[in-house]
Design a protein that fits this description.
mainly alpha, single chain, elongated, 5 helices
Length: about 90
């Protein structure tokens, strides 16, 4: 069927090929398909976790540690996390 009018899948296809080549080179070339799939699952899971944490932080449902990771601390939280504030 191909892509819709005024759209192309060349960019995503090229990115897929480049990423898979990097993953293949990092495998030990024995049962490489299983290793590539496992790597893809891990990266996808980490991406989903990062997106979820970022979403919760933007909604105000966060703890200080996850907000520090994503640089989403409010000015008050930033000040309270400094060593000077603990004095």
């Amino acid at each position: 069927m191909g892509s819709g009018d005024n759209f192309t899948n060349d960019i995503s296809g090229r990115l897929h090929i480049t990423d898979m080549n990097k993953i293949y080179r990092s495998s030990n070339k024995v049962i490489y398909i299983r290793q590539m799939l496992k790597h893809n699952d891990r990266c996808t899971g980490l991406d989903y976790m990062g997106e979820t944490l970022s979403y919760h932080a933007h909604q105000g449902w966060y703890d200080i540690d996850s907000a520090k990771v994503f640089n989403l601390l409010s000015a008050t939280d930033q000040w309270q996390s400094t060593p000077r504030a603990h004095l």
